[in-house]
Amino acid sequence: MEKELDFIAERIEKYIEDTKKITATPGKGVTRLPFTLESKRCVHYLEKQMSQMGLDVIEDASGAVIGILKGKSPERIMIGSHYDSVEHGGGYLSSKAFLGKWTTNDLKDYVDKNGISYYDAMILYGYSPEHLIRAERPRKGWKGYLEIHVEQGPIMEDQGTEIGIVETIVAIERYYITIIGKADHAGTQPMDTRSDAVMAAVDVITKLRQYVMEHKGMVGTVGEIHVYPNQINIVPEKITFSIDVRSADLQLLTDPSVSTTMIASNEAQFYSVSNYQAINLVDKGTDVCLLAPTVNAGNTQVVVAGADSGIVNAKDMEGKRMGYTDGAGVIVAVQNMCDDLGVDFDSIELVNLQASDMLASLESGDIDCFAAWEPWGIRAEEAGAKVLFTGTQSYFPENEGEVDYLDFMVAINANREFVEENPDTAEAYVRAIMKATD
User: Fold this and answer.
1) What is the three-class DSSP state of 273?
2) Which of 159, 307, 334, 412 has minimal Cβ neighbours within 10 Å of its Cβ?
3) Can you tell me whether residue 94 is helix, strand or coil?
């Protein structure tokens, strides 16, 4: 048994060493982008190795290489990984194709730093983007899934542990932040009159570190920074940097109550919140100062129904269980929809849930529909649910089109005491927002 395991280990090491050589950057790590010459070479290598093992080999419409070992049972076990190596993280093309989650427009929207979309890259590679739907697999008949992966951190190695089982896949939120200051001469501009974009970014990045350190298991990274004009003798006018935050607790990344807590404790001097969130803050004793309105975001508030909920028309919502988050402005849209289409609002059973629990409750049948912020609606729609209406658009067959169910105004606000003590900073902040958003 030990000799057999040694043979398997040697063979795996050989495969790894062989594929490491298939790179666009020899001697500088592995760079094997999807739909490139290196990707095609790797596909040919994998197909050859699988065939030699006696597997039936196919390459699907997404570029996934599939080796099939037929057994006696109709149930299937999937073992998988990826053969691409992407500079700034993968696009999960094959994974989403497997689930049937790509559309032609999606492929055109995802563009790399050279302006090449997935759609264009697939055509250049010899694939038909319109055929990607063929890569979708049926949901039934799968007994399990296994992926063997090297640990990408130091914990198991430090503990001397050889094998670990993944318990959680963390959620990821990524942003690009741009801070605009004012370019001045590095030698003659006094420190107390500078609008230095980099110094402002330092404060933000420090706050990010403090926040993630306060929450166990959460990590935050600023891995990309661009400074303008990037000259040694000029005070930076602008800085753009990335933020990558990960946590197994999705609520820490997406729940508005987290930012509300930071605002109420004066950890955030400036913030962008809706009129409903501002009312809640005032109600809890926070002295909110409105600096500038920005946009009506009524279209970002959605009501979504489960695929098996039986909700087609507005009246079908009567007697149904609807999830919502306490303080969510979208409930106003629900009330206005009910008034508009003659639905008995009181007959709808409201179930107060955390936003991060909405989708699971919908899929389990604990609720029939939910009212929430747009990202949760998109995730539900990807899982097979349907959008009934938003604050500005109805999809009910009896009233399809533009509606006026919710004015959800988002504004730039600040801590009033901070504004009174730092009026010039507040004014500069508003000017920067106006410049950045036209």
Assistant:
1) strand
2) 159
3) helix
Q: pLDDT tens digit string along 341-394?
A: 999 999 999 988 877 678 888 888 889 999 987 777 887 887 788 999 988 889
User: What letter would DSSP give residue 85?
Assistant: B
Up-side HSE of residue 180: CA atoms within 13 Å toward CB? 12
Each residue's pLDDT tens digit, 16-56: 889 888 888 888 778 888 888 888 899 999 999 999 999 99
Structural contact between residues 105 and 129, judged by C-beta atoms closer than 8 angstroms: no
Report the distance separating Cα 25 and Cα 30, nearest Å.
6
> Which SS3 state, helix, strand or coil, does residue 293 take?
strand
240 phi, psi to nearest 5 deg: -120, 130
Q: CA 303, CA 389: separation in Å to the nearest integer?
A: 6
- Helices 2-20 and 37-52: crossing angle, nearest 10°? 160
Tokens of 80: 């998988």
State the Cα–Cα distance between residues 342 and 337, nearest whole angstrom.
Answer: 8
pLDDT single digits (tens) 248-277: 887 677 655 555 555 555 656 666 766 667
Report whether 33 contacts 24 (CB < 8 A). Answer: yes
Name the maximum alpha-carbon separation found in the chain. Answer: 81
Classify each residue of 284-319 as buried b or exposed e, where b means 16 or more C-beta atoms within 10 Å of its C-beta.
eebebbebeeeeebbebbbbbbbeebebeebbbbee
Identify the CA nearest to 110 among candidates 131, 96, 127, 126: 96
Measured CA to CA, the distance from residue 177 to residue 162 in angstroms comes to 39
From 179, 429, 192, 193, select the one nearest 289 (Cα to Cα): 429
CA atoms within 13 A on the CB side of 396: 22
Q: What is the C-alpha separation between 170 and 382, in angstroms, rounded? A: 19
What crossing angle do the helices spanning 256-264 and 275-283 adopt, rounded to 10°? 50
> How far apart are the C-alpha atoms of 116 and 109, rounded to whole Å?
10
- Give the span between the Cα atoms of 30 and 19, in whole angstroms: 9
